[in-house]
Design a protein that fits this description.
about 200 residues, alpha+beta, Nucleoside Triphosphate Pyrophosphohydrolase, 2 domains, seven-stranded mixed sheet, three-stranded antiparallel sheet, 3 helices
Length: about 200
């Protein structure tokens, strides 16, 4: 509950921030913060770029999702995921979504709809991941992945992806978030009076 005047009794105030190091796609900071109750501590904060996840829907083919298979160095396994990537400096998330979709699959979309935006792990990360629905897909060229990426596109039934998300090769937590956004969107599409 907020105190009168709008002050949040749980909000810690930052006293200092020192960069511990830069590690490719993220920087690590040591942050000193004090609580309203007088507690004071050192905290590690990861400053990473924003990300985009694209849910490419082919409604006339089942319906199906266009997904990508790729090796993930963190887990050491091949996963099945939605196309995704980093928002470049100065780039709008929607532009990053269109770019990543084309780079990883060779497809472009007539419509990109923002389904939602979340912090992937607010305990120590300060970036946002944006989830877009891509509709009106058309093949526009060959995939052009980054130099150190190997990706293959795969068309999978929506029902299978929903049923298996969180298991086997579908174990990426950001993909779970994307599926939740897609399900919320699809419920809205089937509601009486809903328009697209």
């Amino acid at each position: 509950m907020l105190k009168s005047g709008g002050a949040d009794p749980l909000r810690w105030q930052e006293e200092s921030r020192e960069k511990e190091g830069s590690f490719g796609i993220f920087d690590v900071y040591r942050v000193v913060r004090a609580s309203p109750a007088g507690q004071r501590g050192n905290f590690t904060v990861v400053d990473a770029p924003d990300w985009v996840t694209i849910v490419p829907l082919l409604a006339d083919q089942g319906p199906s999702f266009l997904m990508v298979r790729q090796f993930r160095h963190g887990s050491g396994r091949v996963t099945l995921e939605f196309p995704a990537g980093v928002v470049e400096p100065g780039e709008k998330p929607s532009a990053a979504a269109a770019r990543e979709l084309a780079e990883e699959t060779g497809y472009t979309a007539d419509r990109l709809t923002l389904l939602g935006a979340t912090n992937p792990n607010p305990s120590f990360m300060c970036n946002t991941t944006y989830t877009f629905l891509a509709e009106g897909l058309r093949k526009s060229g060959s995939p052009t992945p980054d130099a150190l990426e190997l990706v293959e596109s795969e068309l999978l039934p929506v029902e299978r992806v929903i049923a298996e998300m969180g298991t086997g090769p579908f174990d990426n937590a950001i993909m779970m978030s994307a599926i939740a956004y897609y399900l919320r969107w699809s419920v809205g599409q089937s509601a009486p009076g809903a328009s697209r």
